What we know:
Elements: E1 9-12, H1 14-18, H2 28-41, E2 45-49, H3 55-67, E3 72-78, H4 81-91, E4 97-104, H5 107-114, H6 118-133, E5 139-144, H7 151-164, E6 168-173, H8 180-193, E7 201-206, H9 213-222, E8 227-230, H10 244-253, H11 255-258, H12 269-280, H13 301-309, E9 331-332, H14 337-347, H15 353-369, E10 372-373, H16 375-385, E11 393-401, E12 409-416, E13 419-426, H17 430-442, E14 447-455, E15 464-472, E16 475-483, H18 486-504
Parallel strand pairs: 1-2, 1-8, 2-3, 3-4, 4-5, 5-6, 6-7, 7-8
Antiparallel strand pairs: 9-10, 11-12, 12-13, 14-15, 15-16
Bound molecules: 3-methyl-2-oxobutanoic acid and zinc ion.
Zinc ion binds next to loops.
Amino acid sequence: MKSKKNRVFIFDTTLRDGEQAPGFSMNTDEKLRFAKQLEKLGVDIIEAGFPVASEGDFAAVQRIAGEIKKSQVAARARTRLRDIDRAWDAIKDAAFPRIHTFISTSDIHIKHMLKMTKSQVLKESCNAVRHACGFTGNVEFSAQDATRTDRKYLCEIVEAVIDAGATTVNIPDTVGYAMPDEFGELIAYLFDNVGNIKKAIISVHSHDDLGVAVATSISGLKAGARQVECTINGIGERAGNASLEEVVMALETRKDILGLHTNIRTKHIYHSSRLLTDITGVQVQPNKAIVGANAFAHEAGIHQDGLIKERMTYEIMTPETVGVSDTNIILGKHSGRHAIREHLKKMGFDLAREEVDTVFKRFKELADIKKEIFDEDIEAIIAEDIFRKPDKYKLLYLSVVSGNAAIPTATVQMEINGEVAQEAYFGVGPIDATFATIKKITGAEYTLVKYLVHAITEGTDAQGVVTVQLRYGERIVSGRGSDSDVLVASAKAYINALNRIESFQTRDDTK
Length: 511
Ligand code: KIV
Ligand code: ZN
């Protein structure tokens, strides 16, 4: 039975804790696009960023706050008053704004990082919460490194911030240290020892350093917490955060014993995961629960036999529940505009008429060289042709000579802010020659951190998708490109990374 008291609020921090991880940087347009998907997914609270960190973060949070109408939009702030003022400035126009302030509470952090006393931390926490409450009644406080905090002190601080006005109190396992049972006991301990605890929602936030973040989060919910902080694909600091799709589907699939429910529209889960991959260029591992390529693939004959007879023999949830369609085949040369439009809708894309026309045109071009078009091909088209705003750099032409009797040489023609530029240069191999020529044309010197290529779908006519990561100051910026020619895909990926670096250039990297 769904009751108010068993309702779990989903707080997504993909755009903050997730985006902080190397290789996951997103620009403002990308963040907004992803935030809209989270809203569609039914996320209760979207943590949009850390406005005081940089102008870029501020702008992204402000833009998300202005456009998201159904979900709450949270901005993170340290307990410094300037952080809180900046957070509020960024979210004040949101339909449902939330200020999220935090400070470390463990002895180890207080002594070595903050160089404060415990009573100073307590006082500063209450001041911060009171200050935030001057702006909004929706204030969250996080006791960073709570799982390594002295329990009595943790109770004291939780009680004090609730008295000061915090409506949500988050108990993070910041370093992914807690065991699930132990964490559940900690939450139960708080419920037993904090007098005013019922006046706030208790939240959990686990990191995956020991691979138990989802189990830890669920243990906290069983003990009475009613908000869980998580990220799509489990991205986040170090080993990542508890994965939203795993937490939600565990609650959904085992509601028989957990008795908890969320407002997540699970059929949008898969698309949300794919969208994050498309934006960041970082794939999930094939065996990843819920959204990995093999999550619903049954290889063993005995399993396949069982499935044919009765799906539930080897499937605890259906792929359709999370939006994995069983119709990932296929559009062909003769598919019409209407079929494409319907298929796009099924995949979770609400595109405008002219955007559908663009996809259709590219689809037809691809269908001329490739027999069957899969969802992954369509996603690649959308990523490249719909959501990339007019870029500074554009590839016009690439020709590469290589082989074991030639010095690999690339000729590249590009458009830079509308002006055509062309160069030829060599390298140790065809990819190196291509990248060296692009560097020569653009003058952009960034270290290549990663180069990855894989086939989007099966078959020798499959498109290659290339992911390139470049080091830009402290950031690792990804770029992706796809094409039936891997060298062209590589050039596109490199150029995409350069364009994404351009979009970060206004940011001051103080994170
Ligand atoms: O891991 C952590 O402690 C955090 C808090 C700021 C919520 O991300
Ligand atoms: Zn965290």
